[in-house]
Each structure stands twice: as C-alpha cells, then as structure tokens.
Amino acid sequence: MVLQGVRALVFDVFGTVVDWRGGVARDAAPFLARHGAADADPAGFADAWRRRYQPAMEAVRSGARPFTRLDVLHRENLEAVLPDFGIDPAGVPPAELEALNLAWHRLDPWPDAVAGLARLRARYVIAPLSNGNIALMIDMAKRAGLPWDAILGAEVARAYKPAPEAYLRTAEVLAMRPEEICLVAAHNDDLAAARRCGLRTAFVPRPTEHGPGQAKDLSPAQDWDVVAEDFGTLAARLGL
Amino acid sequence: MVLQGVRALVFDVFGTVVDWRGGVARDAAPFLARHGAADADPAGFADAWRRRYQPAMEAVRSGARPFTRLDVLHRENLEAVLPDFGIDPAGVPPAELEALNLAWHRLDPWPDAVAGLARLRARYVIAPLSNGNIALMIDMAKRAGLPWDAILGAEVARAYKPAPEAYLRTAEVLAMRPEEICLVAAHNDDLAAARRCGLRTAFVPRPTEHGPGQAKDLSPAQDWDVVAEDFGTLAARLGL
C-alpha cells in the first residue's frame, strides 16, 4: 500500500496549496497604480518580493537573528523592494503597507486543493508545515476553506524549513515518528530535507507556480514515495 | 453589542468543551477490572488522576522543570495514582498504560459543544486555549468533530494556564490585541487570569463537570462579559 504506516500528511503551502504569485499580484496591482507604478508588472512585483523570502529566513536559520515570524519578514521585505519599483515606503501610509502585507493571508488555493484536502482528511491528520506564521495560515484557511486539523509549521517549531528542526519538531508535537508523517510539496528541495529527517514524501508539481516560464520543480528530482499531479489524484492514489 | 471588537474565541477544553470525568471513567473501568480493582469507582479514579494535574503543571509554572507536554505529565500522574487503587504500574504492560493514558484524547464533548462551535466559527476564529498538548487536541477534535480553526494552547505558548504567558503568547500568535480575544471557560479562575491579561471573558458553567456533588464554578465569580448556559446560548447571545 502507498504510504503504509503514515498517519499524518503535512503540506508545504506557498506554491503547493495556494497560488502566491497570482494572489500577491492581484492585490499589488491597485497599490502599484495608486503609487505611480501603474506600468509595473504586478506578477514581476510578486516575484521580486518573493525573491527576498529565502535570504530573510536565512538570517534566522543561521542564528544571526532570533526566530521572527514571517509576517514581520514579509513587511521588511516589502519596504525593501518598493524602491525597486520607484516607490518610497516612507511616503506610504503604514496602514496601506500593512494591508498589502496581508496579501499573503488572502491567497487562493489551486483549484483541486480544497476538495483534495477534504478527501485526505478522512484518513489522515492534515496540517500545514509552512514557513508562514500561525495567524497567516488561519486567515488563509478561513478565507479559502482549507480544512486543516491543526496549524503547524515554522512558528510552532520555531524553525524555518529546510532546517531539520522544522520537520523534527513537527513530528514531536504530532507525537509521531518521522516515518509516520508524509510531507506533500511542490518543491524538490523541501522534500529532500524532509526525507533526510525520515519523513515520507509526496511530490505534487505546480508547473505554473512561477508563471508561464517556470523552469524548476517540473518533475521529481528523486524517487519520492508518491508523485501525483494534483491533490485529487493524490487522494485517489491513496485509495481515498 | 456583546463582545464588540472581538475576533477570536479561545476555549478552555477539559470541563468546558468535553466531559473529562465521564470519558476517563469510561476507559478506566475495564482497566481497573482487569487489574484487580473491579470494586473501585471509575469516576473516583478519574478524580484522583485529575487531582495530580495542577501540582504537575505547577512544577513547570514555577520553573522547577522545563516545559513538558501534558501527555507526559498525565502518564507520570497515572503511574503515581495507580498504587492508591492497589495496582503496581510496574506490573502493567507499558502499552496498556499508554492506551489508558490516551483516554484524555478520547473525551466526549458536552452535547451542545459541536453544534455551538460550528455556529461561533462563522464569525470568529475559534481555537482551544487548553493545557492539553497539540496531539491530544488533534486526536480529540478529529474523534469528536470539533471544528477548530487552529490548535493553540499551552504547547504553542510553552506555558501552562493560568500563567500570563499562556494567554499573552496566544494573543501574539493570533496577531491580535488581548481585548480582541475572548476566553470561553467553565472555570472562574481561568477567566480571572485571562481578564488580568486583558482578554474578554465568557463563562459557560458546566455544573456536572465534577459529578453530581459539584460545589465550585456553579455561578460567575465576577461580572464576566458574557454568561451563557451552553455554547448554543452563547452563539445566540452573540447574534449567531
């Protein structure tokens, strides 16, 4: 049986469950227009904001900075990226910056995500194992109807993926052995880190996460335990 | 409007949402019978086990012991209480002790709880703010159908109620001010501690939590923001 002995499925979220690029672009478009950057490409703005994501977390992973939740990093990154689009963040009312920062709380799930999760939930504990913070994940889930059993991830583990603690402390709070947990992700590097910690792995490629020209994560880089094209197919592969 | 400005309802669980005494007694009865204590009162056994709950957490609250999740404290307390019922824990297979320890994961909700939570969830973020650990709360919720938006509480806050950190760190992860959160509890002392931290308060008495002779928490000890006889009435009082 596929994933025999697995009791929990934990999910990468940004890119795997929800379309961060489309959601951020949608909310950035009117902001950019209001602030004199009407010609900027909102998806390019989303990409530029997101490019600062890994370096910001790396400061935490390296120990240079204590654990800081993602909402704070996103806000810092927003203020850092605005000048690249000709906008001085000091000239934008803070409430407006905050509203745009919350775009990450309002991302839409991929079309198969909600129905697939509902099927998977019948047999497994399902939870995000995201670098997003708890409040972000709650807002996103309530808006989109994601039927999580719990909100886990970086803020509960106090560690950002792909640090091993992010996976191992998640296993600890679930009171499960790592091999009883499967990470579902659209990213080969996330799955590789989870596998190194003993978790099982399911790859669900999201070939348009980075837009039409996506070059990475189109196919499995290792023999992951399961490969499925969407959450519905994943549920079917697991006999649900 | 009642609870104006409140965005999240957090719940005490043992006693407020679920009937711990009835559930533990139900699972303890066959165990006691199997181990030569067939004459023991299972509800009295539940009471005796539970009496060790506050002292065990006090060791953590006082700093005498690092944060230790409730499943571990329950297991230690179980082994400590068995001799009072004539049972030597060293003579019981560990798997059987563990199975009984998980009785706390299998507690039934009070009859109004699931339907009431479903109504409250339409407007508020709802989450346990329990001293129970994450895995315990997940198992309980999946079995009983408690529709939490997230699992919060002592293990996320790394502090046991009524320590202020338990309430204040919960507000922090929710990214809300304390006054935007209301604690729902059947216990006046829990509500008093929450109020000292700035949370709003809703008292839902559970007059049979401690059995037919219950003497405490039958009525409000302060002018809590809301008093309601069950979760359905609470939802109605909030216009839901």
TrEMBL record, chains A, B:
<keyword id="KW-0378">Hydrolase</keyword>
<dbReference type="InterPro" id="IPR051540">
    <property type="entry name" value="S-2-haloacid_dehalogenase"/>
</dbReference>
<dbReference type="InterPro" id="IPR036412">
    <property type="entry name" value="HAD-like_sf"/>
</dbReference>
<dbReference type="InterPro" id="IPR023214">
    <property type="entry name" value="HAD_sf"/>
</dbReference>
<dbReference type="InterPro" id="IPR006328">
    <property type="entry name" value="2-HAD"/>
</dbReference>
<dbReference type="InterPro" id="IPR006439">
    <property type="entry name" value="HAD-SF_hydro_IA"/>
</dbReference>
<dbReference type="Pfam" id="PF00702">
    <property type="entry name" value="Hydrolase"/>
</dbReference>
<protein>
    <submittedName>
        <fullName>Haloacid dehalogenase type II</fullName>
    </submittedName>
</protein>
